[in-house]
Amino acid sequence: MLKEFRDFAMRGNVIDLAVGIIIGAAFTGIVTSLVNDIIMPVIGAILKGVDFTNYFFALTNGHGDGNYTTLKAAKDAGAATINYGIFLNTVLNFIIVAFVIFLVVKQMNRFKTALDATPAPPAPPTRSEELLVEIRDLLKSKS
User: Fold this and answer.
1) In sequence order, which residues have a C-beta less than 8 Å from that of residue 88 and are 6 or more positions away?
2) Does the pLDDT value for residue 110 go beyond 80?
3) Main-chain phi, psi angles of 58, to 5 degrees
4) 30 φ, ψ to 5°?
């Protein structure tokens, strides 16, 4: 059984998957920083600081009167809430991250295509072509 496990773990697919997960984890940090530190401040400036975090429905009053201005106040009073604002923030964050990853992958594919498109060096002449060149040169030298 140990031999079977070793054979399974050392197959190329498992190792490729492990490398992909490790690189993906590192890439997640890069994308998260790009979204949080570069893109979201621009979107916040465009939307003038709109934050959906305090958009919610209070299902119960909890220990207060039911007129809560913030989600924190509703939670502190023990009210049951539907937090659709946090959901909207999460969906918006997902869309932004997905779009950024799309742009990064698109650029990587473009660069890869450009590298693959570099012309290969010309093939050396075949033996027939070399003989034809020699014949041509001989004919030129005789005339």
Assistant:
1) 52, 55
2) yes
3) -90, 120
4) -65, -50
Element (H, E) at 105: helix 84-116
Do both 34 and 44 map to the same domain?
A: yes
| pLDDT score for 136 | 92
Q: Which amino acid would we find at residue 82?
A: I
The answer on 46 and 17 residing in a single domain is yes
The residue range of the domain holding 93 is 51-116
Its pTM stands at: 0.53
Whether residue 132 lies inside any domain: the answer is: no
Residues 6+ apart with CB under 8 A from 82: 56, 57, 59
Going by pLDDT thresholds of 50, 70 and 90, the confidence category of residue 103 is: confident
Q: How many domains does the chain have?
A: 2
| Distance of alpha carbon 120 from alpha carbon 139, whole angstroms | 33
